[in-house]
Amino acid sequence: MGAGKYKYALSNAKEGEYAIEELVQMQSSRLRRDGAFFSGCQTGGGDESLPGKGMVSFSPQADHMAMVMMALHFILSEKMLFKDTFPLLSAYDVREIMLNVYPRKGTTQEEIMDQIHKRHEQRRKEKAKKDSS
Question: How far apart (Å, rounded) are the C-alpha atoms in residues 74 and 76?
Fold first, then answer.
C-alpha cells in the first residue's frame, strides 16, 4: 500500500496474545482463503446463497453451501487428476465439461476438448503477456 493509505482489520485476539506481524499474517491468509472460496462459489453456484441473493433462513443456505463445497472438492480433484495433461484446467473448464457432457449427449468430447484447448492457449498468451510486462 502506498504512503498515507491505511487498511483496517478487527480481531478478537486478546491484547498481547499475538505480535502485530502474526495478526497481519493471519488477516492476509484469511483474505486469500475467503477470496478463493467466493471465487469458487461463483463457479460452483454458491453465489446464489450469498447475502442479498434471496436466501431466507440459515438451514437452506447451509445446505446449499455444503453442496457448493462438494462441487469445489470435485473440481479440485479433477484439477489434481489432470494436472499433468491439462495444467491450466480451471473450475470453469470442469463446469463446462459437466454442463455440456451430462445434459446433452449430442456434444462430442472432441468439441469440448477443443474449447478447453482454446481457453488454455488464451490463458498461456495472457500469462506470457503479463510475465513480459
Answer: 5
